[in-house]
Predict the 3D structure of the following.
Amino acid sequence: MLLNKARLLTPGPTPLPEQVRLALAKDAVHHREHAFSDLLLKVEEQLKVLFGTSEPVLPLASSGTGAMTAAVDSLFAPGDKVIVINAGKFGERWSMIARARGLQVVELCYEWGLAANPEDIEACLEENRDARGLFVQLSETSTGVLHPVKDIAAKLKNTGVMLIVDGISGVGICPCPMDEWGIDCLVTGSQKGLMLPPGLAFIALSERAWKAAEKNRGSFYFNLPKERANLAKGQTNFTTPVNLIQGLDAAMDLLLGEGLDTLYRKQWALTCMVRTGALALDLPLFAPTHYAWGVTSIMLPAGVDGDKLLKVAADECGIVFAGGQDHYKGRMVRFGHMGWVDWADALAGLHALAHGLRASGGFSASRDYLETALSAYHRALDVEPGRVIPDVRS
Ligand SMILES: *Cc1c(COP(=O)(O)O)cnc(C)c1O
């Protein structure tokens, strides 16, 4: 009606680059053909760079949750005790999958908005010396929190407890070098940082995780040892979504083209930009200290109708945000800035946020929040990624 472009500023699915869309439109190749094997082996090498591992990264035909399920079913047997960091919707999902497998689950729960504390994990390990694995999110997408995976991994060193990380909203968005940090299993999905449509998931295992997988064998569909043997020949167990692999080829060239440092620097700068913009609109940030680099969770003041805000932003500005989940439904905006999102998209998003706010019971900001946000972006490009951003109110 208004001829606006539709912009997906959600934490998945994310916008698709033109190069990826064109690759997706190619004729399908047959998945047992040489041309396909060559392509798969090429993207495999790139995926290893992105994951920071020398082990194979297996593509699976499923949503991200499929890879989470494959991890649980392949690494553990019913009755095994595991620890789950539950600090939001996706932490809760680890528990649900583990219970469905018949595992004994010890939950380390945190209030939504908080990150796991490595000291608590140390204490939990003391109390549960028979635990065999620990599950966590890199980025808890329901709250916009970044868990300190590197520090958690350091606590697990020499304990025999495997570390399984759901990196679905973090891989390709913020650093998570699997081998260097000592992660035993890292999973992600196609529709977030990887700039693809939904439908593919990825999983990589450490050497000791492979030993566990060879013992447990997962399920008929998610048979990782068999998948690994096939991948070595450029094959997959079943019919792979070949068009998505063609798209992945284009996406990997974009992601790695200017180096991982540039990719993470851009993500970091966008994070600073959106956080600064929200603060300039006098909106409180939900995750004050440990925040994700791909989604910013913004609290709405009392009296603002969050559902209306989302509708106005979509209908009148073409910007699609995600709202809060569970008890934060209607009270939060989750502003996605992962994948194929740049500073101009973020500017449009901040404008839609302010416009939606005015239309749904909020006040009109008098400060130049767009200018402030954009200068935060440019400042952030010049500093080491990961430094705490300045609070624009001080
Ligand atoms: C999106 C997301 C998932 C779920 O992925 P699906 O592809 O919907 O199965 C799991 N974990 C995290 C952290 C996510 O962001």
Remarks:
- The two ends are 41 Å apart (CA to CA).
